[in-house]
Amino acid sequence: MLDGMALALGAATGSFLNVAIHRLPRGESVVAPRSHCTTCQRVIPWYDNIPVLSWILLRGRCRGCGEPFSIRYPIVEALTGVMLLGLSLQFGWGIGLAFAFYFACSLLVVTWIDLDYRIIPDRVTLPGIVVALALALVSAWSAPPEVRWAPLQSWAVGTLVGGGILWLVAWGYALATGREGMGGGDIKLLAMIGAFLGWQGVLLTLLLASLIGSVIGVGVMLARGGDTRLAIPFGPFLAMGAMVSLVWGDGIIRWYLSTLL
Ligand SMILES: [Zn+2]
User: Fold this and answer.
1) What's the rounded Cα separation, in Å, for the pair 180 and 230?
2) Please, is 229 exposed, middle or buried when counting C-beta atoms within 10 Å of its C-beta (0-12, 13-18, 19+)?
3) What's the gap in Å between 46 CA and the centre of ligand 1?
4) CA–centroid distance, residue 64 to ligand 1 (Å)
5) How far apart are CA 30 and CA 28, in angstroms?
6) Ligand 1 centre and the CA of 61: distance in Å?
7) What is the spatial distance between Cα 75 and Cα 80, in angstroms, rounded to a whole number?
8) What are the b/e assignments for 74-107, b being 16+ CB within 10 Å?
9) What is the band of 236 on the pLDDT scale with cuts at 50, 70, 90?
10) Which burial class, exposed, middle or buried, applies to 164 when counting CB atoms under 10 A from its CB (0-12, 13-18, 19+)?
11) Ligand 1: distance of its center to the CA of 118 in Å?
12) How far, in Å, is the centroid of ligand 1 from the Cα of 36?
C-alpha cells in the first residue's frame, strides 16, 4: 500500500519534473501557464495528464492534434516513481526522505537538461544548496547537543570542497590545454552535491563519476575515431555518482576504509 503510494506520488512528481526539464532551459516559469500541447496549444486536462497511464491510453499522442508526445515523458515519470519507492525503502518515511527525494529529483532534472542543452541551470543547483542548508539546520536542531555543530559544518565544508575541486580542475585543464573543458554549471552542481552529501560524499561522487565517465567516454571516443575532447557532458555522470553516493555511500566508504586499514 505504502509502496504503491510511493510509486504514484513519485510518478506525479515526475510529471512536474517533465515540465521543469522542458521549461527551465527556456527561462520559462515552471508553474504557469498550465501544461499544454506545444503544437496546438491545447491545455492538457487532468485526465490526459495522469502519469504514464495517459501516455499509454493516448498512445503517446495529443488528443487535440495527434502530435506525438516524446516517450521521455512516461520514462521520466516511471523513473521518478521508482526513485521515490527505492528511497523510501532505504530511508523510511520521514523528513530525511523528503530531502533525499528533492536531491534525487534535482539530479534527474540536471541530467536530462545537460544531455539536451549542455547546460546545468543555476535555477536547479543554487536552490539545491539552500535546501541542503535547511536539511543541515533540521539535522542540527534534532540531533543530540554534542553534535549540534556537525551538520552545518558538513554542509559548509561539502559545498566548498565540491565547488572548489572542480574549479581547480577546470582552471588546471584550461591552463594546460588552452581549452575550456568544464563549465561553471558543473562546478555549481558539485557544490550542491557537496552541500547534501558532505566532503566524503562529494569525493566519492567525483571518483564514481570519473569511473563511469571514463568507461563510457572511452567507448564513445573509440566509436568516433579518437577525438579527445569531452564528447559527452559531465553533469549526468556527476548525477549518477551522486545517486550511488546518496544510497550506498556510507557502506562504500566504510568498506574502502576497512580494506585500507
Ligand atoms: Zn496538440
Assistant:
1) 10
2) exposed
3) 15
4) 5
5) 6
6) 8
7) 8
8) bebbbbbbebbbbbbeebeeeeebebbbbbbbbb
9) very high
10) middle
11) 28
12) 8
Burial (Cβ within 10 Å: 0-12, 13-18, ≥19) of residue 23: middle
HSE of 201 in the Cβ direction (CA atoms, 13 Å)?
Answer: 26
Ligand 1 geometric centre to CA of 18 (Å): 17
**Amino acid at position 213, single letter:** G
Q: What is the pTM of this model?
A: 0.90
Report, as an integer, the average pLDDT of 235-244.
95
Give ion ligand 1 contacts, CB < 5 A.
Answer: 37, 39-40, 42, 62, 64-65, 67
Ligand 1 center to 72 CA (angstroms): 17
Q: Average model confidence (pLDDT) for the chain?
A: 89
CA of 66 from ligand 1 middle (Å) equals 6
Quote the cell numbers at residue 70.
516524446
C-alpha cell at 6: 510511493
Q: Ligand 1 centre from 42 Cα, in Å?
A: 6
